[in-house]
Amino acid sequence: MSNYSSATEFCLLGFPGSQGLHHMLFATFLFFYSVTLMGNTVIIVVVCVDKRLHSPMYFFLGHLSVLETLTTSVIVPVMLWGLLLPGMQTISLAGCVAQLFLYLALGTTEFALLGVMAVDRYVAVCNPLRYNIIMNSHTCTWVVSVSWVVGFLSEIWPVYATFHFTYCKSNVLDHFYCDRGQLLRLSCDDTLFTEFVLFLMAVFIIVGSLVPTIVSYTYIISTILKIPSASGRWKAFSTCASHFTFVVIGYGTCLFLFVKPKQTQAAEYNKIVSLLISVVTPFLNPFIFTLRNDKVKEALRDTTKLCCHLFKD
Hints:
By secondary structure, the chain is mainly alpha-helical. Helix content is 75%, strand content 3%.
C-alpha cells in the first residue's frame, strides 16, 4: 500500500523478544490485570453496599475505581492477546479510533476527578463544620457528572485531528496499543501545528486539574501544622494520605507521557510510561486506598464475614 489514509487496520509491533519472553510477560500482566479488576471491583461493591462509606470521599473513590478498571480494560486485553500471537497483531481502524478515544477520555475524566477529590479533602480538613453542607449529595453528583462529560467531550477533537491525517508511510505502530504519538509518526502530512495544539491541550488538562490540587494541599498542610497535638495532626493527614499518594503517582507518570511538545517521542520511552499508567497505577489503586484507610478495611472485614455467613447458610 502506498497510501494508508484509507487503511482498514493497523499492525501493532508490541514487545520485542522471544516467544518465551512474551509468555512470561503475558503471565505477569495477566496477574496485574486480574488483581486490578478484583481489587477495584471490591472497592466499588463495598462503597455501594456499606452505609458507613456513603460519604463524598468514598463516592468519589468508587468513581475513581470505575475509571481505573475501564482504563486498564481498554488497553490490557489487547496487549495480552498480542503477547500470545506470534508476529504482529492487527487492529481495525474503528477499533484503533475507539481505543485511543476511550483511553484519553477516561484519563481526562480521572484528572478532573482527582482535582475534585483534592477540593473535597480541603473542605473536610479546613472547613469540617461546613463539610456536609458544602459537599452534599447534589454537589457530589453534579461535579462527578461534569467530570465525566468534560472528559469525554474534550477528547473528540484531538482524536479526530489524529486520524484526519494521511498515513502514507506505513500502517505499523511500534506500540502495544494505538498510541497517538506513533500514529502521528506514520503521517506524511505536516503534523507540527497539531502536535503543538495537542501539547497545549495536555498542559491545560493535566496542569489545570493539578492547580486546585496544589492549592488545596497548600491549605491542608497549613491547617494540619496548626493542630497542637501530634495525634491530631496525624489523624487529619491520614484522611488525605491515600489521595495524595495516588496524585503523586498518577500525575508524575502522565506528565512524562503527555506534556511534551513533541508527541512523536521514542517508542521505548512511551511503552514504559504507558505500562505505568495502564497497568501499574490501576494495580496499586486498591492497595493505596485500602491499606491506609481504616474505614475501608473495617468495611471489607464486615463484608467478608457477611459473605462467609451467607455461604455457610
